[in-house]
Amino acid sequence: MNREKRHQIFERFRKNDPQPTTELKYKNNFQLLIAVMLSAQATDVSVNKACKNLFEKVRTPRAMLDLGLTRLKQQIKTIGLYNTKARNVINTCKILVTQHQGRVPRDRKALEALPGVGRKTANVILNTAFGEPTIAVDTHIFRVANRTGIAPGKTVLEVEKKLLKSVPAQHKLNAHHWLILHGRYTCIARKPRCGACLIEDLCEYKDKQVE
């Protein structure tokens, strides 16, 4: 895909949704971190449902530690892998309290040192909480980048690097959200909704099904 096509694609995304954001519900950076950690292999809808009551009680790492592992598990037991996730959340909160004055660090290395936080989660936090032009490649973005031709790659990291290189600078801050929403609602896995696609004429997918 050439540079002009990419420019047009992201211009359309911008005009359609000038201020995209995550569908996870949170009140501060700490709650965002916890929600993203819990969202691995789970839907945002299920995380929001589980966290609604939790986040009314817990707004800081110290409050999460006061809640404790057992009660946290009860709060998030509807989410997949909740036992492991709960342990990671508690251990992360211990580090935030002892090493970061209870704040979410604005540093990739420090974020990735937290239990249960990998590169993708760190990218989401850096982008959504701190406004950095990172792109977190999940299954939706990986699919969209490859299927459309925007940034084809065999691995998540390869796609991320290609996106960072090829997305126009003025659109890098919001590219993550546009691509994930496009993959979630239009360029879906089994049968992409090409007939309702905003960028159908620019997309290089060979098996388009436009009704």
Shape: elongated
What's the helix count? 11
Unreliable runs, pLDDT <50, ≥5 residues?
none
- Can you give the helix content as a percent range? 55-70%
Strand tally:
0
> What structural class should be given to the helix and strand makeup?
mainly alpha
Radius of gyration: 18 Å
Order of helices and strands: HHHHHHHHHHH
For the biggest sheet, the summary is:
none
Described by its quaternary structure, the protein is single chain
Beta-strand residue fraction: under 5%
Q: Report the CATH C-level class of the largest domain.
A: Mainly Alpha
Q: Averaged pLDDT, please?
A: 95
Separation of termini?
A: 24 Å
CATH topology of the largest domain: Endonuclease III, domain 1
CATH architecture of the largest domain: Orthogonal Bundle
